């Protein structure tokens, strides 16, 4: 005997209005942009693209250049790792008041700081910090730390808000200090989720660190900008391959760690 599915809930007028607004926004976006699809798929565009890509082959394989590329890759990896580590500390410090565990005013201030930190992209942070820290990886590391602190702080705060508060309240009621109750009851519940967020953001920071070099923040991005500006396409091809390999290795390592943590 088959059961009939329950009737669908009635759609509110605001839902239809929101859907119509999204459709109108998509249509207006296509209408306002001068998208030249015919020129993009023309034979001339294909010929120019193939000639441009042919200039990247074969990649530069001189031992001295490969050593230089490897050092730049290590610099990019270090920028992402240190920036993520600093962001974890900053995100944890801001997530506690942002999760509503203290006074309401502190929650509002912490949420506002997190919104500012994550709303400014890494490239903008790097451009601002280059003035104070100068050219090099230090400014890039601080830019990654600033933006990622806002992202991780918001994620950590949401994880703390969704945690069951009863274990911590039970420990406090039995005489434990609030700090000890938080470390032994609340933090173990959210720690796997926080570690997963951290590893995921480390993956993103590898890509961001490779791009930050374009504005002079060191690493592979700075090498790529230098060789492309001089039209040294073969050297640029080697740098691009190094970026792809670095991102692939970090993605694989992060995926394995996240699976080991969340099991």
UniProtKB/TrEMBL annotation:
Record-annotated ABC transmembrane type-1 domain positions: 73-251
SUPFAM superfamilies: MetI-like (SSF161098)
Stored Pfam families: BPD_transp_1 (PF00528)
InterPro entries assigned to the protein according to its UniProt record, in alphabetical order: MetI-like, MetI-like_sf, PhnE/PtxC
Listed transmembrane segments: 12-33, 81-102, 123-146, 236-257
Membrane topology per record: Multi-pass membrane protein
Compartment list: Cell membrane
Keywords assigned by UniProt, alphabetized: Cell membrane, Membrane, Transmembrane, Transmembrane helix, Transport
Entry's family note: Belongs to the binding-protein-dependent transport system permease family.
NCBIfam families the record matches: PhnE
This protein's name: Phosphonate ABC transporter, permease protein PhnE
Organism: Massilia mucilaginosa
């Amino acid at each position: 005997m088959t059961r009939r599915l329950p009737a669908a809930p009635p759609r509110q007028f605001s839902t239809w209005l929101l859907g119509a607004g999204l459709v109108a926004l998509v249509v207006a976006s296509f209408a306002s942009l001068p998208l030249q699809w015919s020129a993009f798929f023309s034979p001339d565009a294909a010929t120019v693209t193939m000639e441009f890509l042919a200039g990247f082959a074969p990649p530069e394989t001189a031992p001295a250049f490969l050593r230089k590329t490897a050092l730049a890759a290590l610099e990019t990896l270090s920028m992402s790792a240190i920036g993520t580590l600093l962001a974890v500390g900053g995100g944890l410090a801001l997530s506690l008041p942002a999760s509503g565990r203290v006074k309401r005013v502190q929650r509002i201030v912490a949420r506002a700081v997190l919104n500012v930190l994550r709303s400014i992209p890494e490239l903008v942070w790097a451009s601002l910090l280059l003035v104070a820290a100068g050219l090099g990886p230090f400014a890039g590391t601080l830019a990654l730390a600033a933006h990622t602190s806002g992202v991780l702080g918001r994620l950590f705060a949401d994880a703390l808000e969704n945690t069951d508060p009863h274990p911590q309240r039970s420990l406090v009621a039995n005489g434990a200090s609030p700090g000890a109750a938080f470390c032994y009851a609340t933090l173990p519940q959210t720690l796997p989720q926080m570690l997963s967020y951290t590893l995921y953001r480390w993956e993103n920071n590898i890509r961001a660190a490779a791009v930050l070099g374009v504005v002079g923040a060191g690493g592979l991005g700075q090498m790529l900008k230098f060789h492309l500006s001089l039209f040294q396409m073969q050297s640029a091809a080697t740098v691009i391959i190094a970026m792809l390999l670095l991102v692939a290795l970090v993605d694989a390592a992060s995926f394995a760690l996240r699976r080991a943590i969340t099991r």
